[in-house]
Amino acid sequence: MNVKTKTKVKTTPWDIFEELITEEDINLFVEASINEAKNDTDPSLLTDALATAAEAHRRLAEKQNTADLPQKIALGKNPSINDFDKTARIFGYHVTLVPVA
């Protein structure tokens, strides 16, 4: 008789902000997110990634006592294209709309 045993999977909490601790980390995260979003049809992937990067940048700025990012960019929010573009520019990107071929 073949008896199947269930193996419990142990998970541990993970906080992305523990990994995004320098400007370079944050910029690489944004770049990787943009590359991933190119193959995904869900626009929330990029907006959530940018919100995560903005929060990481806010935390870094708080540690360094520097200027803050626009508060309208946050996970679960629907930022205006203006707010999205302002935040993208902080990370060295800009929003461009192009016609679909």
Structure report:
With 101 residues, the chain is mainly α. 46% of the residues lie in helices and 0% in strands. The mean pLDDT is 80.
* Element pattern in H and E: HHH
Shape: extended
Approximately how much beta-strand content do the residues carry?
Answer: under 5%
Main β sheet profile? none
Counting helices, strands and paired strands, the structural category is mainly alpha
Overall average residue pLDDT: 80
Instruction: Provide the low-confidence segments as ranges.
Output: none
Radius of gyration: 18 Å
Tell me the span between the first and last alpha carbons.
61 Å
* DSSP summary, beta strand count: 0
How many helices? The count is 3
Q: Fraction of residues in helices?
A: 40-55%
List the helices and strands and how they pair.
Blueprint: H1 23-37, H2 44-64, H3 81-90
Helix pairs in contact: 1-2
Features:
about 100 residues; mainly alpha; about 45% helix
How would you summarize what this structure contains?
This protein is mainly alpha-helical.
